[in-house]
Every structure is written in structure tokens, then in C-alpha cells.
Amino acid sequence: MGWCSQRPSVEKKKEKKMKHLFLIFLMNLLHQYAGKSLRRDGSSLKSFEDIKNEIAGYTDIAKAIIDLAVHGKAQNRSYERLAVFADTIGPRLSGSKNLEAAIKYMFSALQKDGLENVHLEPVKVPHWERGEEFAVMLKPRNHSIAILGLGNSIATPPEGITAEVIVVDSFDELRKRAQEAKGKIVVYNQPFISYGETVQYRLQGAVEAAKVGAVASLIRSIASFSIHSPHTGGQSYQPDVPQIPTACITVEDAEMMSRMSLRGTRIVVHLRMGAKTYPDSLSFNTVAEIVGSKYPEQVVLVSGHLDSWDVGQGAMDDGGGAFISWEALSLIKDLGLRPKRTLRLVLWTGEEQGGVGAKQYYQLHKENISNFDIVMESDEGTFQPSGLGFSGSAEAQDIVKEIMSLLQPINVTDVFEPADGTDIAYWMRDGVPGASLQNDINKYFWFHHSQGDTMTVQDPNQMNLCAAVWTVVSYVIADMEDMLPR
């Protein structure tokens, strides 16, 4: 009985001692992880102060990249490489011999540059050709109309289409005047508000015109400025709506026909288009890497698209973006750097047809989505850079803002929301952080998808700065100890 009566006091002492030991352990733990949070598995997360200090440690490397790209032996290299490519190959439409030649050219160039794992990944892409095109206003006077057929448009009959014109400035006006439109050519004279808003007329103009019984549609080019230049681009038919021929016309001709129409003048146009759609063609996404030193399975992806429309040289859209992405790997290699993660260059095919190459790449690689740290695409020109478009978590954005501070020497430090890019959209939709180059696009839509998209648009100094931004961001993210938080 005496042993039993003493037991509670012994247990209490033990319990007190255990509590005391646990308190000491807890205090040590709190001291050890002061300012840090704990993951569920018990490992520590860096505090933001730690991350800031880690990024500040890249100051000298960032300066070395900037010096090499902007002032050093790599100065003007991306521009000069692009000039040779664009002058040699020309425009590179999906399914064309030119695009095939461009892919072979780049495969060889990336190998000669000493990059790693240079390879091609097969993709099926649409194959459409515009053929001969001709448009003339017959009434009230004879006037040649400059046109560019839109991607995937059907042809006119061999003898062409001759019809009266109805001019509208919106889809709403077309619907209100539906009875007038039957058997006519619809001319859209919509004002340019923004590309995202106004491009709906190019994408859906033929379908909306066909719904009201029109025989063809001519759409004012999606351009913020014009010197009588038509601008092409993609458009989509709908399965349950008749297909009619469709093309873009110049801002000047659309406005002239609008003025004539408002005066009550009858306009008659003759249109002839020889477009053809062929079975899908074999193409390739072009890939090269600098393999990571510590986490080679993790990927920072930089990209631009190699295809273009069949006019101009595709120098701006998207030769510039593709070639500053190549330049990022070249600069890192030239400096003898090897980031912890793999830096992967992808030159997409079939972007202009709706990101066809990128979609197939995503399907092929999405099983490794947790290893994709960030996906980056430059596809809005390589003019004077202003910063970075970014999509991701608030924590990741704070880290990217710190990284952008490394670009203070060239005064390009801003971070905007969101990132934009047809080819990286699939990844961003599934939570992978994304980035796009932000630059002065005031003149971008002057040349976009037109004969004016040539090397004359490009500026070597601006491309140097864009390459520096692209390289610093991609290298630092690839070399930091931790992936960007999602």
C-alpha cells in the first residue's frame, strides 16, 4: 500500500521534468528558426530576408552579364545572328519549306554554339497556303485594294466573287443590318481600341458575316497605324456556319469605303483568292540546354517562336524573342556559368496557328510539371525593355521583384501583371510561374503580321538590353537554391 501511495508524486516529478525539457527544446527550436517558417515535413523555409540576401549575392554576376551583352564582345550579337537568319530564310509559315529550312538552320547553329542536348521534338502543324490574291473596287470607280488573306481562309471560286459591299463598324451593326448583308461582301471598319479587343473582328469576322448570308468578308487590319499595309493573321471557322473567303484590307481602304457608304454611294468589289489547305505537316520544336549542376531535373524554360506568317521576314514576330532566348544561353556559356537547374531553350513551331507546337510540347512534358520552375516567353517585340510581366503567387512575385532590382544598372526593374504568351499559357494555367518580356510596344502593331516586319524594325542596342534582362532573370532563378514558391 505504501508503494502505491507514493507513485503519483514520482509521476508528477517526471511529468514536470519532461515539461521542462520540452520547454528548453522548444525555446532552442524557436531561436534556431527565428524569422523562418516551418514546412509540414519539419524542414525550414528561408525568411524573405534570407532570400533577399541570396539574390543580392548575384549582383556581380548580373553586372557581368549586362557588361557582356551591352558593352562587351557579345554586343549586337543577337541582332547580327537574327539578321543573317532572317535574310537567309525569310518568312516561315507553318507547314512551309521555309520553316523546315529555319528549323534545320537553328539545329545546326545551336550545336555549333556548343549548347547541350540540342534536339528536335516532332510536332504536327497545319499547312495552309494563300496562293494568288487580288481585289479591286469596280464601283463607284476603279481602285486596286491591297489585301492579305487570313490564315485557314477558303478560296473564292476560280472566277472570283463580284458583289456589292456593306460596311459596318461593329458586330452589333452587322446584326442590326442582317437583312441588307445577304449576298454581299461585308467590310468591317472597326476602330483599333487594343489588340486584345479589336482582334476579335479578325478571328470571328468571317463567321459573323456568314451567319447573315454574306459571300465574303474584308476586315480592316488590326493595326494602330498604317501606310496602306494590310496585316494578316489567324481566323477560325465554326462547324455549323458556312465557310466564306476572308481577308484583311488596309485601314485606308476600310475608312474610304466607310465614308463612301455613309454618303449613300453604292460600292462593288471583285475578290479573287486562291488559298489552299493541305493535310497537317511534320514540324519540330527546337530544344537546347545548359544542364543544371545540382538539380538537373528541374527546368527554367526560356522561349520564343520560330514560325511566322508568310509576309515580311518575321524579324519582330518572333525572330527577336527567339534570338534573345538563344542569346541567354550563349551569354551564360560565355561567362563559364552553370546554374544549379537546367536552363532550357525552346523555339516553338506553329505558334501563329494557335500555339500548336507548344500544346504538343505541354502534352509530352506535363507529367514533369512539378520540375518546371518558371516558363518564360518573349513574343511582343524586342524594343526598349521596361521590365517583366509575371504570373505566379504573391511570394514568387516578391522574389522576382528582388531579382529585377539586379537590373538597376540598365534601369529595367519593373514587374507587371500578368505574364503573357500563347506558348506558355498551358503551364501557367496549371500553376507554373510564368514571365514575359515587357518592352515599348508603341510601334509593334505598325508592323505586326505585315510586309513591314523586317530587320529594319529591329534595333541592335535595344536587343542587347532585352537579352541582358532575359539572361539575368533566367540565370538567377535557375541558380537559386530553392524553386519559386507556387
Search tags:
elongated, alpha/beta, about 475 residues, 8-stranded mixed sheet, disordered N terminus
Describe the structure.
This protein is α/β, with parallel strands linked by helices. The chain contains 15 helices and 16 strands. The protein has helices at 2-32, 48-56, 59-71, 77-89, 97-112, 171-176, 178-181, 195-211, 251-262, 315-334, 356-365, 394-404, 425-429, 444-447, 460-479, and strands at residues 116-129, 133-139, 143-144, 147-149, 161-168, 185-188, 216-220, 246-249, 268-273, 276-290, 295-305, 341-348, 372-377, 385-391, 414-416, 434-439. The longest helix has 31 residues, at 2-32. It is elongated, with a radius of gyration of 29 Å.
Write the layout of secondary structure elements.
Blueprint: H1 2-32, H2 48-56, H3 59-71, H4 77-89, H5 97-112, E1 116-129, E2 133-139, E3 143-144, E4 147-149, E5 161-168, H6 171-176, H7 178-181, E6 185-188, H8 195-211, E7 216-220, E8 246-249, H9 251-262, E9 268-273, E10 276-290, E11 295-305, H10 315-334, E12 341-348, H11 356-365, E13 372-377, E14 385-391, H12 394-404, E15 414-416, H13 425-429, E16 434-439, H14 444-447, H15 460-479
Helix pairs in contact: 3-15, 4-10, 4-15, 10-15
